[in-house]
Amino acid sequence: MKILLVAPCPPLEQRHNTMNVPQLTLSLIAGMTPPEHEVEIVEEVFGDTIDFDGDYDVIGITLMTQTAFRGYQVANEFKKRGKIVVFGGIHATCRPEEVIQYGDAAVIGEAENGLWESVLDDIKQKRLKPFYKLAHFPDLQKTVKPRRDLINLRSGKFSVSPIETTRGCPYNCDFCTVSRFFGVKQRHKKIRDIVEEAEACDGKFLFFLDDNITIDKQFAKELFRELIPLRKTWVGQASISLSKDKELMQLAHKSGGKAVLVGFESMTAQGLTQYRKGLKTIKENVDAVKRLRDHGLMTMASLVFGLDTDDDSVFDVSFEFLTRSKSAFFQSCMLTPYPGTPVFEGLKEQGRILTDDWSRYDATKVLIEPKNMTPEQLLKGANEIQKAIFSNNSILKRSLPNVSLGLTEFIFYFTLNKGFQKRFEQKLLLGVQRNKNGEPVDFDASKYVVPFKQKIKKQEYVPECAIC
Fold this sequence. Notes:
Elements: E1 2-7, H1 25-32, E2 38-43, E3 58-62, H2 68-80, E4 84-88, H3 90-94, H4 96-99, E5 105-108, H5 115-124, E6 131-133, E7 154-155, E8 158-163, E9 166-167, H6 178-182, E10 187-188, H7 191-200, E11 205-208, H8 217-227, E12 233-238, H9 246-254, E13 257-265, H10 269-274, H11 282-294, E14 298-305, H12 314-325, E15 329-334, H13 342-349, H14 375-389, H15 392-403, H16 407-427
Parallel strand pairs: 1-2, 1-3, 3-4, 4-5, 5-6, 8-11, 11-12, 12-13, 13-14, 14-15
Antiparallel strand pairs: 7-8, 9-10
Helix pairs in contact: 7-8, 8-9, 11-12, 12-14, 15-16
């Protein structure tokens, strides 16, 4: 069979010439595909064009929540042509009863351990089922190698190779989909396999996709030791507890680590208590960022605004932390009620979700009625702190301790900060996102994208385990 794997992206969100981390999902699916099948990958974020009239037998579409509607549009075009459409990804996992309206099957959760092969075999035998899901999370010790020949590595001025070492996150934050999809227990790949894959990656720059590469400190130390001889450069995600372990910081830097994205989530007293990840005060977190920098690691500070513990003072507290710590980068996230999370269920029940337009669910927009301020106050505060941090003055003030780490850090610092600045300026006037024309927030996707197959037999899906 000829298989087309698609990562959809709305046209206005495509980024052809800016920093964007290539995904690994579709190349992993391609790696699981038996060799008798032909596989082609299209990633619309890079401007790839879909050939709707191609001679494909099966269309696989991976969905994030913000790309779901575009994915449904793509599916409709292929269904018009009589093609078999299979959905996967985090949105398909958390909304299987929705996605099945637009396709023939949904893969729920991870697709390893023979699950994808079962889907393809059932297609060949003409016995395709609507839903496929493993009874247990797959064992990552049995490595599936991605088809790296199918990954688009070019991202703006950088060539980036995505790589994965673990899955799962024990923090289980109530707004995050990671633990719902990958579980709360971290699973590891074999270090030998990781190193072989890293060595085989084209180019020097790696991006570790792990949600927290340093949770298991012994595993991380062993991995970093093995990576040192490769002389690669990498960026990844870690918790601030990394700053408490001098040996781990040293090994991270020696192995090529240049920067880590740290989910601080909140700098308010209540937020630090609710999402405690090791440190209790602004000063402790400021000192931690400095320790990371002293060991050659820049910090991208990720903060979430709109938590129930937030009032409009959260922006002053956050600005104080960012300026005092001289964090190299800043990721501003609006509290987003992603389906499958406790935040979604709670805000839905309270009637505080302002729109069910999935295309707005990208963590950069105001979608909710906050508890202690208006949506407009949340928008204004988020715009003001981003405008201040991404100003030329702030970028220069924060630069010295970061760019002095080396030439690579200098280029990375200014490229990313100017990129954030440009992206912020483009989205500044988006406003609060509400349903138009008084439409109810009922999460009926068909009012945005009408399914091609209008009449389907309703499928009842009952989760077998707590993946979603």
